[in-house]
Amino acid sequence: MNNHAEEQRVEIEAAVLRKFLAHLDEHKEVQNIELMNLADFCRNCLAKWYSSEAKARSVDVDYEQAREIIYGMPYSEWKEKHQKPATPEQLAVFEQKKSKKR
Prior knowledge:
mainly alpha
């Protein structure tokens, strides 16, 4: 892949991530546990991946900073405003999936 094509790919991927984060932001009603149970990732996973990739490129973005980027606000604020307690059913599915990974 030539440099121009690589730059275009990176720009497209960045734009897709921005749209994905905007989509998640527009759907705050979708809880992290629902994402984990259905897709095996959540907003916190995205923050971990973001921080990890930053660190791999010698950019200092810790997990809390990455969470603020992903959530669009400090996690504590998002949690207070938008996170609902998980239902017993959601927790059961989460634990079942977690035990299958071991």
